Amino acid sequence: MDDGTDDFPALVARSDHSMIILTTASGGERSGCLVGFHSQSGIDPPRYAVWLSKANHTFQVGALADTFAVHFPSADQSALAELFGGETGDEVDKFARCDWTPGPDGVPLLDDCPERFVARREGLVDVGADHVCLDLAPIEVDHDPSAGGPLRLHHVVDMEPGHAAEERQRPDGAA
């Protein structure tokens, strides 16, 4: 019996939401990934919610991290999106393939993404799905009004992800 959710992905894709690149560092390791599930989640105090796939290397590193950087790539940065969305940190050092600068707590700041903020993790919510929610509080903001339009879902919809959603991982690295 159809539960009526088969059309949900197509309906939500109509919003053509922007994509971000999330980076973090912990335990001497860096990681980052392309993320489609994110939103401002508070005004006073300001908060941002990022839903991070349990399949990603960034989930393993981020589970132990307090500091994250949220980058807003522009539509013409498909190569950077492909690097952070189509490769996995389990196999590739993504940061050896791009220019970056260490930020607070060693979090990698992507030099080619001037639209970004650094945030402190206030919480992590796991509702048992294939993603966890990071509740982030901005501590530094870099805004470049001349930056191009945002990278959107339709720019990356054909990208082959570095990990499939079925490849869930726990913070301790176990499957």
Brief synopsis:
The chain is an alpha+beta fold and 175 residues long. It has four helices and nine strands, in the order H-E-E-E-E-H-E-H-E-E-E-E-H.
Structural account:
This protein is an alpha+beta fold and 175 residues long. The chain contains 4 helices and 9 strands. It has helices at 8-13, 57-62, 78-86, 153-156, and strands at 20-26, 29-35, 38-43, 46-53, 67-71, 100-102, 108-110, 116-126, 131-142. The strands form 2 sheets. Strands 2-1-5-8-9-4-3 form a 7-stranded antiparallel β-sheet. Strand 3 (38-43) and strand 4 form a beta hairpin. The two termini are 30 Å apart.
Mean pLDDT: 83
Number of helices: 4
Secondary-structure content class: alpha+beta
Shape: globular
Count the strands? 9
Largest sheet: 7 strands, antiparallel
Question: What is the CA-atom radius of gyration, in angstroms?
Answer: 16 Å
The main sheet orders its strands as 2-1-5-8-9-4-3
Q: Could you tell me how far the N terminus lies from the C terminus, measured between alpha carbons in angstroms?
A: 30 Å
Unreliable stretches (pLDDT < 50, length at least 5) are 170-175
Secondary-structure element order, N to C: HEEEEHEHEEEEH
Which range best describes the helical content: under 10%, 10-25%, 25-40%, 40-55%, 55-70% or over 70%? 10-25%
Percent of residues in beta strands: 35-45%
Could you name the key traits of this structure?
175 residues; alpha+beta; 7-stranded antiparallel sheet; two-stranded antiparallel ribbon; 14% helix; disordered C terminus
Topology:
Blueprint: H1 8-13, E1 20-26, E2 29-35, E3 38-43, E4 46-53, H2 57-62, E5 67-71, H3 78-86, E6 100-102, E7 108-110, E8 116-126, E9 131-142, H4 153-156
